[in-house]
Amino acid sequence: MSDLTYPKPTRELAEMRRSLNPEAEAAFQAFSKAVFSDGALSGKTKQLIAVAVAHVTQCPYCITGHTKAAQRAGATPQELMEAVWVAAEMRAGGAYAHSTLMLSTLEHP
Questions:
Q1: pLDDT tens digit string along 55-76?
Q2: Are 72 and 48 within 8 A, CB to CB?
Q3: Half-sphere exposure of 16 (CA within 13 A, CB side)
Q4: Has residue 4 got a pLDDT over 70?
Q5: Structure confidence at residue 3 as a pLDDT band (50, 70, 90)
Q6: pLDDT confidence band for 2 (50 / 70 / 90)
Q7: How many whole angstroms separate alpha carbon 61 and alpha carbon 16?
Q8: Of 32, 26, 102, 59, nearest to 67 (Cα)?
Q9: How far apart are CA 44 and CA 71, in angstroms?
Q10: What pTM was computed for the model?
Q11: On the CB side of 79, how many CA atoms lie within 13 Å of its CA?
Q12: Quick one: how far is CA 85 from the chain centroid?
């Protein structure tokens, strides 16, 4: 795999981000903890959703972080791959569904 153009996340960068706005950082961390806690959906299911969404948003940090979190929550490689396939289908489905705009334009120039 080739190197990404994104900087490697480091403790120093995390500390800099935290120091620049500690209240927002704390609020975001609390929000994240609440979102990924077990509720109507298990933490594992939420992490699988996060992996799928991360592939759609194409965030390399999120893909890596949520893949690791999903594994810690018990997700198997097969479950992770199925989540990615769901994301791929949804992304492709958006293009397919929006073809109605093109078709409508052809009918009514």
A1: 999 999 999 999 999 999 999 9
A2: no
A3: 5
A4: no
A5: low
A6: low
A7: 17
A8: 59
A9: 8
A10: 0.85
A11: 15
A12: 14
The helix-helix angle for 43-57 and 60-72 (nearest 10°) equals: 160
In this structure, what token pair is assigned to residue 75?
């997700």
Question: What's at 78, amino acid-wise?
Answer: Q
Residue appearing with tokens 């997700």: 75
Place of tokens 């972080």: 65
**Secondary structure, 3-state, the chain:** CCCCCCCCCCHHHHHHHHHHCHHHHHHHHHHHHHHCCCCCCCHHHHHHHHHHHHHHHCCHHHHHHHHHHHHHCCCCHHHHHHHHHHHHHHHHHHHHHHHHHHHHHHHCC
